[in-house]
Write a structure and sequence with these properties.
- The chain is α+β, with helices and mostly antiparallel strands.
- It has five helices and seven strands, in the order ββββαααβαβαβ.
- It has helices spanning about 40-50, 60, 75-85, 110-120, 140; strands at about 1-15, 20, 25, 30, 90-100, 130-135, 145-155.
- Helix 1 runs parallel beside helix 3 and helix 3 packs across helix 4.
- The longest helix has 14 residues, at about 75-85.
- The radius of gyration is 15 Å and the shape is globular.
Length: about 160
Amino acid sequence: MNRVGIGYDVHQLAEGRTLILGGVEISHERGLLGHSDADVLAHAIADAVLGALGEPDIGYYFPPTDPSIEGISSMDILRKCAEVAASKSATIVNIDSTLVAEAPKIMPHANAMKENVAEALGIEVRQVGIKATTNEKMGFLGRQEGMAAMAVASIEM
């Protein structure tokens, strides 16, 4: 049976934080605020995979109230999603994702992001799509107050 899940995540930008997207540290004046490394792209992908599996979202597995996981790498979150998929005898067919941010430029880092996501999920790089767009300077994303990401995961059970 083929199943599909969607994921969406958003985080505020904040001074004094490192910007990590798709497991890649990107030079930028601000980073994303969150209990983990706040990798908005990885979080959207994780929720898409978990949704396709019929599981709760990443907050169930990684609650923001748990001090033991503060600062956790979102690549570890994706590894957990791959473990959950394997426990259900599911195979991740592909991931497609879009990051929404006015800055910095994302595409120079897309290949490294694909490699990180593929490694964490135990799939091939060719099975991971990462795109980027802006919000055309509209709303909180356009004012560079935060970043958002959406993702779709296809799995075979």
